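Example 5.3 — Putative 4-hydroxy-4-methyl-2-oxoglutarate aldolase
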Amino acid sequence: MKPDELTARFAELTTAHVADACVRAKVPVRCVGLKAALPGRLAGRVLPAQHVGSVDIFLEAFGQAEPGDVLVADNGGRLDEACVGDLVVLEAKTAGLAGLVVWGLHRDTADIRAIGLPVYSLGSLPTGPLRLDPLPADALTTATVGEWAVSNEDVVLADDDGIIFVPAAQVEELFALAESIRDTERRQSALIAAGTSLREQVGFDEYLAARAANPELTFRAHLRAKSGAIEE
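Solution (predicted structure tokens):
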């Protein structure tokens, strides 16, 4: 999917919709609760880079970037240093990137907000790195964020709930499922506003009676039969 189409499709969805679509499609739900330096949304192909103490790895990654990519900076989740600052973010913007996802901390928050490029991280800290470690051979091909290893075969999506990684090859399928889930939820919301409770919509009393007869029945299985979308 082209960057503009990816952004446009995701603009009408949330990471929650996509996470539920992953459950339905039996795709691993690769979520991480990062926060944005500036509220906003982000969608793009992963551009991985493992940080070992110097920003040169990011500059090297930018030289390989395609428009709309998202730098995924792996700093091992460290909370004792910031690995991304305003100059890196400004360079990313100049290189045509859509934003940055940092498994670690950023700094220069005010300047980053002024630049306006989305940056998601674990938070901020004034100090930069005070060390320089050996560079792994795969520093520009793989990044780890939380428990997830990602590459340029993945897409990252981000909003106020955090981030989710999905396989680039399955974006179309997952977006279609997510749009279906979104539409179901909107119908349910409209019905609640009009006076039909969610319990009525999903036949909750029917579910309780069925569960009494069959204790192995789950609410999720009941929802699937009812085409509900509140859990997946």
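Remark. The two ends are 24 Å apart (CA to CA).
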